[in-house]
Every structure is written in structure tokens, then in C-alpha cells.
Automatic annotation (TrEMBL):
Keywords: DNA damage, DNA repair, DNA replication, DNA-directed DNA polymerase, Magnesium, Metal-binding, Nucleotidyltransferase, Transferase. The keyword DNA damage applies. Gene3D superfamilies: 1.10.150.810, 3.30.70.270, 3.40.1170.60, DNA polymerase, Y-family, little finger domain. GO terms for cellular component: nucleus. It comes from Hypholoma sublateritium (strain FD-334 SS-4). This is DNA polymerase kappa. Residues 1-35 are annotated as: Disordered. InterPro entries: DNA/RNA_pol_sf, DNA_pol_Y-fam_lit_finger_sf, DNA_pol_Y-fam_little_finger, DNA_polymerase-Y, DNApol_IV, PolY_HhH_motif, Rev_trsase/Diguanyl_cyclase, UmuC. It catalyses: DNA(n) + a 2'-deoxyribonucleoside 5'-triphosphate = DNA(n+1) + diphosphate. Residues 1-13 have a biased composition (Polar residues).
Length: 436
DNA sequence: GCGGATCAC
DNA sequence: GATGGTGATCCGC
């Protein structure tokens, strides 16, 4: 095999490009590309180069490349005997059926606090106003102020990398108790508008305001303005909202027309990476099979390919994404619906088994404490640990009785088969998903 | 049921 | 010098 074929060169240059993008972190592509993102990515990559973290990312990137090669081979094979016109016609039929399920009667709102942790810090320390600062926990950023974001600083980024991008960056330590305090307050406000509202993390949620608007003879827009004003009045924090007939997240503060055509126009140019569930890897895989512009509009033009790759990508999920149809029911999760509880710690590399077991004991004790608070019990104990190479191992064991004690959690020590640990995670499942 | 991977926040 | 913690889900054994 000649190693300098055009295809080879292409694959290799793609690989470095995707690695550089990967190193920029999971949230970098999410907010839309900055003008000088290439330069930012270069700085990040240079700062990482040579580290074990970098080597691990390189390995994972390579694995995705191999996955892509397999998928392309499969695609080529499946395409050989494919009557494209016929498949497209049957896809069009399926799309019609899905279109019939579109329900435009519900007023669904997605509310999302602006730079939540950062703005809470700003609230409690006004001297941060206008400054480039970020909130940091365990060496990793959880939020960045809008001023800092201009430098390419993003949540999920290592603090020392952020400092390279923005040397004057002020680092503020996480204060979790403070955020949950305010989170409770905000969720309380959202509840007044929809008692069944569904929180998504501590700073955002989905509301169905159909009933509220009916009862108070309000339009959705008026209602959402009132929600946002109430949050600001009671917390002095700002919130953005998107209004739509289902849970597809609109962009920022936005009301989507309640009309199939307008919704499809919206998704047509929407980068597929912004769709919940499409992350960095799926974006790369989809790009490889022809979602070239990486927008949802390409789902339609590539419907024949996608139909033969149903297994890999989920045909109906993608078609519904193209149509801009998603669930429009909002329901709070009940405590009973929770499926697992866990505790995780990262530490500097431990080599001696005794030290590792001591750490494991700490994590087990922490998990037992959290379990007691909620009266939680489970049947499957999973141990996850990470080596200093960032390689992760998982070992699970299901038992025939309910586990609640730290002694039983600590028993996972039998499953450790390495040293050089930097992270330990113990997870307890209430019930594993039943096989179909 | 288990282990690896991906994803969201 | 250095890259988090919690919970969910899907796929291929």
C-alpha cells in the first residue's frame, strides 16, 4: 500500500484537525465558532502537547477515525445494490407519517440562566463587573464571564490552559452551596408557572405554560417576559428563554413560529452539533457520511444514506430532528425514577495498594452518606477507576439483595487490578435496564 | 448482565 | 506541573 495516496493524506490531515478540535473541549463547538477559533485551538493544543492527557485524547481521536473508516466501508457496500430513488421515496413517506404527528398546541419554554455560576459570583462580588473571570473547581472551569469567553475561555477547560488564552483571567473558587441556594429560589419561581416543570441541571428547565397562559389570558411571550422579570426581581440574575411547540432548544431568547414551515426553516441551517444528543463524536461520524455542512437540512438530502445506517445513527431520531419535532410533554422526574447514585474522586496518582484502598474507603463512606440522605438502596455495584494515562476501567457486579452499607461498597476492592490510579468512582444502580 | 463509549450540564 | 463530578443511555457482546 502506498502511504502517500491523496486519500491517506486527507485522512491524516483530517485527523490532526479533529484532534485539535477535540482538545479544545466538549463545549468549544457548542457555542458557535469564534472568528479566531483556529488560533485559539492552536494555543490549547500547544499547551497540552506532550502530556498524558494529550496522548489519551490522541488515542481516542484515532479510535474514532477507525470507526469512521469502518462505517464508510459499510456504507459503500450497502450502496452497491441500492435503488436510491426508491429508498428516498420510502423515506419521504416516512417523513409524511412523522409530520402527521406534529402537535403545535403546546407552549413549551426552555429557560436557562445566563452564565449562572459566574453571575452568582458577580452578584456577591460586584468588583468582578466587566472583568475576565471564571469559576473553577478542581482545576477545571465550570463557567466563564462573557468578557473571558471572548478569549476562547470555556467551561470544562483546565484552568492552566485558560490562563494561557487569557493571562489576566481571575479565578474564583466554586461555592456550590451558594448556587444550590439560588437554584432552589429560581426553580421555585418556575414552579409557579408549571407545577410539573422539569429541571435540567441546577440552572435550567423546561416548562409547559399552556395552562398558565390560558388561565391568565396571556400570550406565551407575555408570560415568558413575566417569568424573566420575576427571576430578575427576586434574584437579580438574568435568564434567557426559548418558546416553541416542543422541546427543541431555540437559540437564546427566541420565539419560534408555531408553524411547520418556520420550524423546518429553523432546523435547516441549524448546526447538527447543537442538537441535544449530538456531541463531538457523532458530529464527526455524521460529517463522514455526508452531513457535509453539518446542518440538519443535510439530514433530508442524505436521507438515503441515513436510512441504510439506521442502526448506527437512529433514522427516526434524525428525521424528527430535521422536522423539528420532539417530545412536547413536560414532566418532573420523581425520586422513584432515579436509577443510580454514585461518588467520584480524582487525586494525584497513587501507586501503593494500601493508599488506593484508603481512598476507596473514603469514596465508599461518601457514597454511603449520600445514600442515607435519600434512603437509597441498589443491586448493582460498579467500580470505575482511571489510571494516570487517563485510561478508564469499569467493573460491575450485581447481587441478589439490596445494598446500602459502605462495607458492601468497599468490597469492590477485589475488582482493582492496577496501580497508578488517579480517580475512583463507585456507582450503585437500583436496577439495570432489562434486555429487550 | 458487563464493559466501553458518548453525552448533558 | 497541571484536564471535574453526577447521572443517563446505547451498543456489542
Amino acid at each position: 500500500m502506498e502511504s502517500n495516496s491523496p486519500k491517506d493524506t486527507l485522512v491524516r490531515s483530517q485527523e490532526t484537525e479533529s484532534l485539535v478540535k477535540r482538545l479544545a473541549g466538549p463545549s468549544s463547538g457548542k457555542a458557535g465558532l469564534a472568528k479566531d477559533q483556529t488560533e485559539i485551538n492552536r494555543i490549547i493544543s500547544d499547551a497540552s502537547k506532550g502530556s498524558k492527557f494529550y496522548e489519551n485524547e490522541k488515542k481516542k481521536d484515532k479510535e474514532v477515525t477507525v470507526r469512521i473508516e469502518k462505517i464508510l466501508k459499510y456504507k459503500e457496500e450497502a450502496f452497491k445494490n441500492l435503488d436510491v430513488a426508491k429508498v428516498e421515496a420510502s423515506m419521504d413517506h416516512l417523513i409524511e407519517q412523522l409530520e402527521e404527528q406534529r402537535d403545535l398546541t403546546q407552549l413549551i419554554v426552555h429557560v436557562d440562566m445566563d452564565a449562572f455560576f459566574a453571575n452568582v459570583e458577580l452578584l456577591d462580588n460586584p468588583s468582578l463587573a466587566g472583568k475576565t473571570f471564571a469559576v473553577v473547581g478542581k482545576g477545571v472551569l465550570t463557567t466563564a464571564s462573557y468578557e473571558a469567553r471572548k478569549f476562547g475561555v470555556r467551561s470544562g477547560m483546565a484552568a492552566f490552559i485558560a490562563k494561557k488564552l487569557c493571562p489576566h483571567l481571575i479565578l474564583v473558587e466554586n461555592r456550590h452551596w451558594r448556587y444550590s441556594e439560588i437554584s432552589d429560589q429560581i426553580m421555585g419561581i418556575f414552579h409557579r408557572y408549571d407545577p410539573d416543570m422539569c429541571p435540567a441541571g441546577c440552572d435550567e428547565g423546561y416548562l409547559n405554560i399552556t395552562a398558565y397562559c390560558e388561565e391568565h389570558a396571556m400570550t406565551a411571550e407575555e408570560c415568558v417576559r413575566e417569568i424573566r422579570e420575576t427571576v430578575f426581581r427576586e434574584t437579580k440574575l438574568t435568564v434567557s428563554a426559548g418558546i416553541a411547540p416542543n422541546k427543541n432548544k431555540p437559540n437564546g431568547q427566541y420565539q419560534l413560529d408555531f408553524d411547520a414551515k418556520a420550524i423546518k426553516a429553523f432546523t435547516h441551517d441549524l448546526p447538527i452539533r447543537k442538537v441535544p444528543g449530538i456531541g463531538r463524536v457523532s458530529e464527526r461520524l455524521l460529517e463522514a457520511i455526508g452531513i457535509k455542512a453539518s446542518t440538519c437540512g443535510d439530514i433530508y438530502t442524505q436521507r438515503a444514506v441515513i436510512s441504510i445506517m439506521d442502526k448506527q445513527f437512529g433514522l427516526v431520531y434524525l428525521l424528527r430532528t430535521y422536522l423539528g419535532i420532539s417530545s412536547n410533554t413536560v414532566q418532573a422526574h420523581t425520586r422513584e425514577e432515579r436509577k443510580s447514585i454514585g461518588a467520584e474522586r480524582t487525586f494525584s496518582t497513587l501507586h501503593k495498594l494500601d493508599d488506593i484502598l484508603a481512598k476507596l474507603d473514603e469514596v465508599a463512606a461518601e457514597l454511603e452518606k449520600d445514600m442515607q440522605e435519600d434512603g437509597w438502596v441498589g443491586r448493582t455495584i460498579t467500580l470505575k477507576y482511571k489510571l494516570d494515562t487517563y485510561r478508564v476501567f469499569t467493573r460491575a457486579k450485581s447481587v441478589d439483595h439490596w445494598v446500602s452499607k459502605k462495607e458492601e461498597l468497599y468490597a469492590v476492592r477485589q475488582m482493582i487490578h492496577s496501580s497508578h490510579l488517579t480517580n475512583i468512582n463507585i456507582l450503585l444502580d437500583w436496577q439495570r435496564p432489562a434486555p429487550p
